[in-house]
Design a protein that fits this description.
By secondary structure, this protein is α+β, with helices and mostly antiparallel strands. It folds into two domains: about 5-170, Jelly Rolls (Sandwich), CATH 2.60.120; about 175-289, Homeodomain-like (Arc Repressor Mutant, subunit A). Helix content is about 45%, strand content about 15%. It is built from eleven helices and nine strands. The strands form two sheets. The chain has a five-stranded antiparallel sheet with strand order 1-7-2-5-8. A hairpin with a 2-residue loop joins strand 3 and strand 4 (about 55-60). Helix 3 (about 120-140) runs antiparallel to helix 4 (about 145-160). The N and C termini lie far apart (about 50 Å). About 25% of the residues are buried. InterPro entries: Homeodomain-like_sf, HTH-like, HTH_AraC.
C-alpha cells in the first residue's frame, strides 16, 4: 500500500475540517500536519513511546490517544508492525454541533489531563468499527456527512471518558524545569507566522498560562527560576525574531506584519520594534534590499 502524500492529507483537512485514515502496517513514515489547527485521536496497536507535554508514556499494546495542537507532543514508533487509525479535526468543525464546551477544557485534551488510555480487545473491536465507518462515510456524498462525522467523534470521546486513564507515566522531577520546557516548546509552536489572515494568538504571559491551565504567577516563577528571564521577555524576543524574518523574507507590508504579530495598530508595532532593536521596521527592510 502506497501512503497518500502529505499535501493530500493537509488539503483535505483545510477544506473539510476533518480527515480520518488507516495507519499502514509496517510503515515508519512520519507525517507532518498543521499542529496549530487540528486535534488528533489515534487508536493504535504496537510498541511506541509518546511524549506529551511534560510526561512520557511507553506502550506495547493498544492505546487510544488524544492530541491537542496547543500542547507539545511527539510520537516515537518503536516497532515496524504498527496498525491503527487516526482522526484529525479542527475545533471549529466539532463545535459546529451543539457541543459547547471547548475541547481545551476536556479532561482528554487539556494539559494535566489524561490523553492516553489502555484499550482492551473488546473495546478495540468496537472502536475499530467506528473508525472504519468514518473512513467509509468520508468517501460518500451524503448531505449530512459532517453531522454524522461529528457524532462519531463525540461517540469516541464519550467512550474514552468512561475508561480509566493510563497511569504509566514518567515525569521530570523538577517542576520548574518541566513547566519551563512546556512553555518554551509551546512558544515555539506559535511560529512561523504563515499567513496574514492567521495572526498570532498567544501574545502575553497570561495567554500562555491560560492555555497551559495554570496561574500566571506560577508560570512566571518557574520560567524565571530556570532561564533567568521572564516569560514576557521570552515572548518579546521571539516576536522580534519573527518580525525581522517577516520584514526580510516576505513582501507583506508593515501593516500586515503588525497585524499578523498581534498588534492592533501599525504604530504600536513600530514603537515596539524600535524599542527592542533600536531601529524601525521600514529602516530594517530598506537595509536588506
Amino acid at each position: 500500500m502506497h501512503p497518500r502524500p502529505i499535501s493530500e492529507f493537509n488539503s483535505t483537512l483545510k477544506l473539510k475540517g476533518f480527515n480520518v485514515f488507516e495507519i499502514e502496517q509496517d510503515s515508519n513514515e512520519t507525517r507532518a500536519y498543521s499542529r496549530k489547527d487540528f486535534y488528533k485521536i489515534c487508536l493504535t496497536t504496537g510498541k511506541s513511546k509518546i511524549h506529551y507535554s511534560d510526561r512520557s508514556f511507553e506502550t506495547d499494546a493498544t492505546v487510544l490517544f488524544f492530541g491537542n495542537p496547543h500542547i507539545p507532543y511527539s510520537w516515537e514508533t518503536l516497532s515496524t508492525s504498527y496498525v491503527g487509525y487516526t482522526c484529525l479535526f479542527s475545533e471549529e468543525f466539532l463545535m459546529a454541533s451543539e457541543r459547547s464546551e471547548s475541547l481545551q477544557q476536556s479532561p482528554l485534551f487539556k494539559i494535566g489531563g489524561t490523553p492516553i488510555l489502555h484499550i482492551s480487545e473488546q473495546q478495540r473491536n468496537f472502536l475499530n468499527t467506528l473508525f472504519v465507518r468514518m473512513i467509509e462515510e468520508q468517501k460518500t456524498d451524503y448531505p449530512f456527512k459532517d453531522d454524522l462525522m461529528r457524532n462519531y467523534i463525540n461517540l469516541i470521546i464519550h467512550e474514552a471518558l468512561k475508561l480509566k486513564p493510563s497511569e504509566n507515566y514518567s515525569q521530570q522531577k523538577n517542576a520548574s524545569g518541566r513547566i519551563t520546557s512546556v512553555f518554551l516548546e509551546l512558544l515555539e509552536r506559535q511560529f512561523p507566522i504563515e499567513s496574514t489572515d492567521r495572526p498570532l494568538q498567544l501574545k502575553t504571559a497570561q495567554d500562555y498560562a491560560t492555555n497551559l491551565n495554570m496561574h500566571v504567577n506560577y508560570l512566571n516563577r518557574a520560567v524565571k527560576q530556570v532561564t533567568g528571564k521572564s516569560t514576557t521577555t521570552h515572548i518579546t524576543e521571539r516576536v522580534v525574531h519573527e518580525a525581522k524574518a517577516l520584514l526580510q523574507h516576505t513582501d507583506w507590508n508593515i501593516s500586515e506584519i503588525a497585524y499578523a504579530l498581534g498588534f492592533e495598530y501599525p504604530t504600536y508595532f513600530n514603537n515596539f520594534f524600535k524599542r527592542l532593536t533600536g531601529t524601525n521596521p521600514k529602516t530594517l527592510r530598506m537595509q536588506e534590499v
